[in-house]
Specification:
A 6-stranded mixed sheet has the order 8-9-10-1-11-18, with helices on both faces. The chain has a 6-stranded mixed sheet with strand order 13-17-12-16-14-15, with helices on both faces. By secondary structure, the chain is of the alpha+beta class. The N and C termini lie far apart (71 Å). It is built from 17 helices and 22 strands. The N terminus is likely disordered. A hairpin with a 3-residue loop joins strand 8 and strand 9. The protein is globular, with a radius of gyration of 28 Å. The longest helix has 31 residues. Helix 10 packs across helix 13. 32% of the residues lie in helices and 20% in strands.
Length: 591
């Protein structure tokens, strides 16, 4: 009996061993067949905590790990648009004081990557935690419109943020003290307020976000490893959405653009954001260069409060001779484009009346008439394909409406304006200083403008290179006569570029050229309390008033570039900078 039992046990163990080996081989085979995408789109990230991952490009990683109330989806053209996320629906209600309350209903199948249900309390905790962190992110200041913000900030007590509450596990209520057109984009689909689970933060403390074992997530991927070389994420088995893209995505840190490009060419990585100039120039010559909008504008600033630019004719004269196309050429950069307004391409248009279906060829649909901007009606009536104006810059390109001018005619106009200001042929015009942040691109533009004004207006301009901190200090202190400076969007809305120029703000508040216009101030006051359609019209009108004053003269827009390995498709992008790879697949071969 004992011998029989021993033989039986040996047989069982042998079968178990073979089964285990077979299982291990299957797992290794499956792992070997996994579709791993290697992307280089961010500098090194030291944390996967939504409130702490502040390094450039960190939002790209976070969007794959976490999902907010809303998410970003490809519109079919590579542009990211809002779609339902963990919240399957929401309603809004405005009271007599103008306060706006959003009520979100969370989907019942939303789960964390450890299998636990996502609840409304997880969002409440994420909001309140921001006010209690020892080193809160600067972006918390953008939550000022949430009821209780100032009290929570002053006391560093998140419980005082009364505008965020959870009546039950699947209902989240957020109350704003007024309208905020970009609230859904910035906070309900942004990274700052992505859900965080309190028990995990309390358990792991400072390790939360630092190691894979201390991170759980709500998005299509979960964290597998985080190291000095990369972050590796893998499919989240508890994510409610369909798995259509890579099984794994490895985010490899950016180093040197040229070296990273060689990795792309060799197949070491599959995607690169930010191509080296050599590759950009090569594509430009081949006619294959595709620029991606960056929400940044470089502008010439003429200080209205400093002589001689307190004279509007002087400002107009200096602006009149500037050809933005020539400025772009002088910059030497193949990734900048001539500006046609202060607000750059890529900023969202929030007026539904300017959104036109691309498949129609008339100005009407089956349901209701679509109202087009007046200058586009003629094009629509011709039966040409219509555009969807998700982009604020798609209408109101003010510089493009001006007549075409030769260099000679620009110079003649500038001289006439300068003479009208009391300086015929530049006589008795004082020497003025142009301040710029010291980069090769900015220096090239500064020297071009210096020579241009000398040759066309017969005036002397001296140049002052400064680091960004010094230049910013000079501007905010009003201690300059003219300058060149880059303006970046703090959030996805035209207001991010226009709000600073209100009369009440002064130089310290950002109105560095001391622009003052009652009509402008009135338009922006309407913007803060109006619906999307009305506010967009006011924003465009305000921008035109600002540009007419010539205190702010947009010169060029910034752009970026990227490349995806041959045979792959499905990357989409927010103009604010984040890339999405969750739908990348092998491209179908051409017929």
């Amino acid at each position: 009996m004992k011998r029989w039992l021993a033989l039986a046990l040996a047989a069982v163990l042998a079968m178990s061993f073979l089964t285990a080996c077979g299982s291990q081989e299957t797992e290794e085979e499956d792992a070997g067949n996994a579709f791993r995408l290697r992307v280089c789109a961010t500098v090194r990230q030291e944390s996967a905590d939504p409130a702490a991952a502040s390094a450039s490009g960190g939002d790209t990683v976070l969007y794959h790990l976490y999902e907010n109330l809303l998410r970003w989806e490809d519109d079919g053209s590579g542009h990211a648009v809002l779609a339902p996320g963990i919240a399957e629906s929401y309603t809004t209600e405005e009271d007599v004081s103008g306060a706006v309350t959003y009520t979100f209903t969370l989907r019942s199948d939303a789960k964390w990557s450890d299998g636990e249900d996502v609840t409304a309390e997880d969002f409440v905790y994420a909001y309140r935690r921001l006010f209690e962190m020892s080193d809160p992110p600067a972006a918390v200041a953008k939550l000022y419109m949430v009821e209780g913000y100032y009290q929570a900030k002053a006391e560093k007590d998140g419980s005082l943020l009364t505008g965020v509450s959870a009546p039950d596990g699947h209902t989240l209520v957020i109350k704003l003290t007024g309208h905020c057109a970009y609230f859904l984009d910035e906070f309900c689909a942004g990274t700052l307020t992505m859900p965080v689970r309190e028990d995990m933060v309390e358990e792991y403390g400072g390790a939360w976000g630092q190691t894979a074992s201390a991170v759980i997530s709500t998005g299509p991927y979960r964290l597998r490893t985080i190291s000095e070389e990369s972050i590796l994420v893998e499919r989240n088995p508890y994510y409610y959405g369909e798995a259509t893209g890579p099984d794994e995505i490895e985010f490899v840190w950016q180093t040197d653009a040229a070296a990273d490009y060689e990795k792309l060419l060799s197949g070491e990585i599959d995607f690169l954001a930010g191509l080296p100039d050599s590759a950009v120039l090569e594509q430009q010559e081949a006619g294959t260069l595709e620029l991606e909008a960056v929400p940044s504008t470089y502008a010439l600033l003429l200080n209205n409060a400093a002589a001689p630019f307190d004279n509007e004719f002087v400002r107009q004269a200096f602006a009149a001779v500037v050809d933005t196309a020539a400025v772009v050429e002088a910059s030497g950069s193949p990734t900048v484009t001539a500006a046609t307004g202060l607000v750059p391409p890529g900023i969202s248009n929030r007026d539904d009346e300017w959104a036109v279906a691309t498949e129609t060829d008339t100005t009407t649909t089956d349901s209701e008439e679509v109202v087009l901007p007046e200058d586009l009606i003629e094009e629509a009536e011709t039966g040409q394909e219509e555009e969807t104006f998700w982009d604020y810059r798609a209408v109101g390109d003010y510089n493009l409406t001006e007549e075409e001018l030769t260099a000679e005619s620009r110079a003649a106009r500038g001289r006439a304006l300068l003479s009208q200001a009391g300086y015929p042929n530049g006589q008795n015009f004082p020497t003025v200083e142009y301040v710029y942040v010291d980069t090769p691109e900015n220096e090239a533009v500064a020297r071009y403008l210096q020579q241009l004004w000398q040759e066309t207006l017969n005036v002397t301009v001296t140049l002052r290179a400064a680091d960004e901190e010094e230049a910013r200090s000079l501007l905010l202190g009003g201690e300059f006569t003219m300058a060149g400076f880059r303006f970046d969007a703090a959030y996805d809305d035209a207001l991010a570029f226009l709000q600073r120029w209100q009369s009440s703000l002064g130089t310290a508040g950002g109105n560095v050229v001391s622009f003052s216009d009652r009509a402008y101030d009135l338009l922006l006051s309407v913007v803060s309390a109006s619906s999307n359609s009305a506010r967009e019209a006011c924003l465009h009108d305000a921008e035109e008033l600002l540009l007419q004053s010539k205190g702010v003269v947009p010169l060029f827009y910034y752009n970026t570039t990227s490349a995806l390995a041959d045979g792959l498709t499905g990357v989409y992008r927010r103009a604010m900078g984040a890339y999405f790879f969750d739908h990348v697949t092998a491209a179908e071969p051409a017929a």
